[in-house]
Amino acid sequence: MKINKRLKAICDLVPENSKVIDIGADHALVDIYLNKIKNCDCLATDISPNAIKRAKINIDKNEANVKTKVIDGLPELKDEIIIISGMGAKTMLKILHSQITNDLILSPNNNVHLVRKAMRKKGYHIEKELLVKENHYYVITYYKFGKHKRTDDIVSPFLKNNIPYMRKLLNYYQIKSINERKLLQKLKYKHIVKKIKRTIQ
Q1: What is the CB neighbour count within 10 angstroms for residue 105?
Q2: Does the predicted TM-score (pTM) go above 0.70?
Q3: CA distance 196 to 182
Q4: Which of 32, 40, 84, 115: disulfide with 64, CB 3.0–4.6 Å?
């Protein structure tokens, strides 16, 4: 089945035969793909009954074995991978307010640095991170519980050499004092991050 680049990148981070809970699943395309292509046991959840109705239509149409549930927040958890994407950082963090240790795949629509900071405080580290451009940039991060080498709240080591994305960050935070030539040579990364942090504090 065909899904867009962002959803495919999310699915690429999920190991085969995993147990998955997709929070805010909406159309359930991620769950259908994971079930059909990677043999994952998926639960698609959403706060909206109408969204779950649409999800069930897609699930039946694709003959997938995906469970659904209308719920606000997290269901009862065991060892599932939790996927949350397609929503703002603050909404995402409200869902993740309780103390959990599950693996997480998170892709907020904005304020990625707030999610990184919150996850670090909760004891998580970044295991892997992908960047997808579809109209705008989407950061997709795989978090695992447990201490690890500290990563920046602004840009993780997985993304800091992506020059177009770094330029986008500078534009987003309205920072114009970085020398373009040095940026293109991948220099002064720490200086860029410091300037961004001063701007958002």
Answers
A1: 24
A2: yes
A3: 16
A4: 32
pLDDT at 133: 86
Q: Would you put residue 111 in left (φ > 0), alpha (ψ -120 to 50) or beta?
A: left
Residue 105 domain boundaries: 5-149
Q: How confident is the model at residue 201 (pLDDT cuts 50, 70, 90)?
A: very low
Here the CATH number for the domain that contains residue 36 is: 3.40.50.150
- Other CB atoms within a 10 A radius of the CB of residue 123 amount to 15
Strand, helix or coil for residue 55: helix
Once rounded to an integer, what is the mean pLDDT over residues 116-122?
A: 89
Is 114 strand, coil or helix? helix
Q: 137 with 170, same domain?
A: no
- Residue range 73-77: average pLDDT? 92
Considering the domain architecture, whether residues 28 and 103 belong to the same structural domain is answered as yes
Residues in a beta bridge with 42: 20, 66
Are 49 and 26 contained in the same domain?
A: yes
120 and 197 housed in the same domain: no
Q: Regarding beta strands 136-145 and 81-85, do their DSSP bridges make them parallel or antiparallel, or are they unpaired?
A: unpaired
Residue where the block lists tokens 């961004």 = 196
